[in-house]
Every structure is written in C-alpha cells, then in structure tokens.
Amino acid sequence: MSDMDLPNLAIHDEPRYTNRLIHETSPYLLQHAHNPVDWYPWGDEAFERAKAEDKPILLSVGYSACHWCHVMAHESFESERIATIMNLHYVCIKVDREERPDVDALYMDAVQALTNGHGGWPMTVWLTPEGLPFFAGTYFPPEELPGYSMPSFPTLLLRLAQFYKTRRDDVEAQAEEFRNFYAKRGALDLPGLLSLPIAASEVDLSVLTTAERNLGKSFDMTQGGFGGAPKFPPAMELEFLLRMHLRASAVPVRLERIQLAGAKAGAPELTPLAMVTRTLDKMAAGGIYDHLGGGFHRYATDDRWLVPHFEKMLYDNALLSRIYLHAHQVTGSRRYARICRETLDYVRREMTSPEGGFYASQDADSEGQEGKFYVWRPDEIRAVLDADDADLFMAVYGVTPQGNFEHSGASVLHLEKPIAEVAEARGLAQEDAENRLADARMALFTARSRRVWPGTDDKIITAWNGLMLRAFAEAAAVFSSQTYAEVASNNATFLLNTMRGKDGRLLRTYRAGKAHIPAFLEDYACLTAGLLATYEATFDARWFVAARELVDQMIALFADEADGGFYDTAGDHEQLVSRPRELNDNATPCGNSVAAEVLLWLAALTGEMSYRARAEKLLLTLAPAMAQHPRGFGNFLCALDRWLAPSQEVAIIGDLEEPETADLISTVRARYRPNTVLACAPPDDLLANEAIALLSGRPSLDGLSTAYVCSNFTCKLPVTDPEELAEQLGDR
C-alpha cells in the first residue's frame, strides 16, 4: 500500500501541511503527516522541547484499523481551528500503539485509573514534560454532544492548558500520584488480586477446575462466548477449555462440572467441550466471520456475533485459526477444518507481503463508511446471481430488504438458517444446495473484489507474525500441507533475516524496507513459539537452533532475576516513567505467558531444567489469580496446564522421505496433544542430534524408523510399529 492509498488524508495536489510524521514508516503515523497539527513522533526531541518551553504534552495513541481513531482524526486533527489550539498550548506526540506497545500499555494504565477501568482507542493523555500523566481519556468530540456529559475536545484543550499554567501544584501532585502508581505496578503483582508466590505442592488440578468453573459462570449458553455485548472472540480461553476436555477424557474420575445460574433442573451439564463447540459454531455462523473471503473481524457489537466491528487484525486470525484447527482435531469436524483453512488462505491472499511477512490489519472503513465493503443489499446480490441462486443465498445468509446493519437496508452476511432446512423447504438435495451456495459465494467474492477495498496497514510486527507463523506451522503438520509449510518457512526466514539490528538483536516492526524499534518481550516469546512450531512441522533443525538462541537472549535482556518473570522492555531500553510488565492476557497473549510456554517447551526438547524453573516461578506466582480471574489469563492457564500435565516427549529416528517415518509422525499428529513435543531426524543429521537433546543417542532399531516415547523422565522401549506407538501415547 502506497502513502497515496492511506485513508483520511486531505486530497490536494500539494498538501497544505506536512509535519515530522512524514519521515515515519507506520501507516497510522503517515495518515497524520499532513495534519495541521505539529505532530512529533515519540522521542527525545518532543520531550526536550516541552521542557524548554514548559509546555504540557498531548499524547495521542491509536492504530491504523481503528474506526474511532479515523473519526477523531477527521473531526479534530484535520481541523485548522483545533490544530491551532493544540500547537499553541501543547507539544503534540502521535504514537502507533502497535509499534510501541510499551508506551501504549503504560498510559492505558493511566486512562483506566482515571476512568474507572474504561479504556480504548483513540487514547488521549495529557502529560507533564517528564512524561507523567495528569489527565486522560479516549475519544473526544469536536463539539459538545447533547445528552452526553463529555466536554468537547477544544474546550478540554483550553481548560487543561489553563489548569497547567495556573494550578501547577495540583498538576504536580497528580503526576506524583502516578509516579507512585507506576512504581507499584512495576512489581510482580496484580493490584487487588491474590498473587503471592506459593509452594509448588500447593498448585494442583483445583486451580484449573476453579478457573473452568469461573469461566462457566459468565458463559452465554445460547450464543456462546463470555458475557454480553460487545463480544470478543475468546480464543485463548477456548484453548484452555479444550485442554480441560482432554483432562476429563483421560482420567477415570470425572472432573467437576458446573450448572449455569438459572439453568433448568435436569439441563445438560456444561462441559468444557460444550462451551468450546457452542462458541465456535456461533462465531462461524455469525457476521463476525467473513463468509465470502474468510477470516474474522475484530469483535461483535451485539451478543449474537451478528454485526461486527469490521476491522481484521492479524493476531485475531492467528489465534482463531489455531483454535478451529485444534477443535477439528478433537471433534473431527470438517466445518472447523474448513474455517481454519479459509482463515489461513485469507491471510495468504490478502495479508502476506512479497517478502513473506504478514501485514498487521485491514481497516473497518472503506469510502469513509464502516463495513461498506462487506455488506450486501438484495439488488446487489441479484445483479450477480440468477434469481433462484439469489433467493437460495439470501435465505441462508439472512439478506433481507430491511437489512440488519445500521438502518442502511444492507445486511451483514450470516448463517440465518441451516442449509439443510432451506434446501428441504425448496425441494433441493442438501449436497446440491451446498454446491450452489459455494458457487454463489465465489461469484459474490469476485464481485466484491471490484469494490473499493479497505486500507491495509502493511507494517509487519514481529510478535504478531510469530503468532501467525505458529498457526501456519501447526496447520501444515495437521493437514500435511506443503503449501502451509512453505508459508511458515518463508515467514521464519524473513523474520530471522530482516527483523534484526546490526547487533543481532530482534527488532519490532518493518515497513517500506526499514526494520526498526528494539523488540519487546512479546516479540521474542511469540517468534520463539512460532519457530518451535515450525521446527515440529518441518523438522528443519535450524528453526530449533534459532528458537533457543532467541530464548537465551530473551532471558538475558528481559528477566527479572530478583522476583521472577520478565519485564516487557529490555534492561537497556529507553527509560520510561516506569518499566512496564504486562501480566494479563488481553487481545493477544502477553509476553510473560508466552515466555512461560516456550520455556516449558524448550525444557522438554532439551532436558534443560533451568528453563522449566523460570517458567515454574512465574506460574506459581500467578496461579491463584488465574483461578479467580480466568478471563484475564487464558494463555497463562494453558501454560499452567502444560506445567501440571505429565510431560510427553517423542523422538523419531528415521529418514523423513521414508513412508515408515511418515507413518510414525502421522500417529503422533493424529490427535490434539498440546503437551507433547515431537522431534525427528535421520541418524546422520549431525545438527539435529547435537542441538536437540531429545534426539541424542537414539539409534534406529535394525535400520528401521524408530520412535521413542518418554514421560516424566522415564522412557518406554523404542518401537517401530505405528500401532505400538499409539498404545504408548495412550491412544489405545
């Protein structure tokens, strides 16, 4: 995407204004490069000017796909009148939250502290020249809105500028409160939660079952998901529940099940698998899923997954493609496999750069309207399909003359009725109806492709690429897909070759030929997870070697040796008012939870118990909080389950080109085994045998492909027969 394609830039032959953001690579920052606001990027220059002129700082944080960020930009930042106020009274800094998650997290804490826990983007924060907040909020309108207590943005700008000049003691007092607030947040604790370290012997299955029970209390039995509108896809919580299903299936004593409050007597018990499948089914049927192009939108504005906020984020599609893949492995559902494939194929088609990196997001808006690219009116469908196919399609996908989207007469596509029901009512065989609908979707997808497309934020973020890399690698293994394996290998090659500085350390973001910004904890951890998954999909030892090097570097740069866990920024990172440490899983898994996961993963492959000890200390610290507040610890709970589960390591010695080796590998991959690690190499692969302790000293039996299964530091006898391997794995 060129700069000319970016939305919300005023169209002039020669822009009337150009500010410092013109030198940035972030599409979000470039969208503001021709604002009349005298924007600075985050950096010393802005803070030095604020100190020299004794001016407060106005910090605005957002991201390219954010609808309300675009609204505030158009209403306020493109306004000469409002820009004049901003430039006169403030030093103005614009930040892309996806490039600088440290800055975003630091000041989101301030927003939530000042707004009773509410936060979001655009984020607007007033700072002292030292970077301490004294007022914060999100979106502010250019004029007062009738019926709302929210002040207009220009009114607030003027009031706070006067407040800074005339009541400096109050400003400093508020700033000092935040200095103390950040000092407390920097410790390895969660304010208001029980999170004191406890003995390993005190953490048992009850932590997981309590978390499951607390998740069930907020589960929507009708529509799936947790809580009410708006609804966000709970991929990490579903992964945890899928693990709990495996535990319930594997032990003779049933784990405690729960009944929802208000459930009728005799109603079916709420099992972990029921919560997973109900949610996945409802999301796949809803408008949050793109039924023509594949992939998921950010969230649903209602409680039935019908009307989405239409932006598409790379991380959502990485996490959701994995949970549909894993649910397919558990249930055998072809529908789940199809949703996974369609999501990955969408990313391949629309979100992959020529170099192999994955783009960050696609906008909710096109032609200045949210969702316009995705919604349909009956006449638009009839213009593409013949009358019978149009009627069939509209009956199945809920397209009506009145529509369901913002009184526009347009409809968000969703599965209104089961295909079998509509087919029967029309006297069609279900297979015939499904084939006709498949052809209709392709025709409408082609027609939609001629519309004005939403903008794409084509920057490449290391952490999010690591999440997507893992999804492609796991799908390559499960589906035996060489295509997905090539996508994963190309992405891993790009990241390792391009996202490094001259010092060999990882970088955060890339666009337009430039990689920059020192990487954060989540970048190291997520890329490591992606590389380990790519190793287990391809058995190319270079991915394992690179993963271990990254983890060792991660420990050296981010570890808190005193209290355990990791900081989000490296020890030599730019000094902020506090060194951030995220301990909650939110839209993405936090760096600490992925770090715990990859440390356990590496410990199983290498036998290096120091990795396991680091993960253990972090998990024990947070285990009580995980049990009581599971919706904030979805990926942490998966890591805790991995720590509590019996370890299972499988080493296969054999030529990867031989069918006998492939049969052994397929036996391991046939089921969802989240706590099993798999290594494979021919006997003469010196790199693999030297790098991966699990493979070391494992001869093949009589020259045959041979599998070794170990669990809890005890190994079974080697086997060459897939049936015997399945028995050792517990499948028989």
Keywords:
732 residues, disordered N terminus, globular, 5-stranded mixed beta sheet, 10% strand, alpha+beta, Glutaredoxin
Can you offer a commentary on this structure?
- It is a single chain.
- The protein is of the alpha+beta class and 732 residues long.
- Among the domains are: 3-185, Glutaredoxin; 374-450, no CATH class; 646-732, Glutaredoxin (3-Layer(aba) Sandwich), CATH 3.40.30.10.
- Helix content is 47%, strand content 10%.
- Strands 1-3-2-4-5 form a 5-stranded mixed beta sheet, sandwiched between helices.
- β10 (365-366) and β11 (369-370) form a beta hairpin.
- α9 runs parallel beside α23 and α19 (521-538) runs parallel beside α21 (591-606).
- Residues 1-12, 189-198 and 251-266 have low confidence and may be disordered.
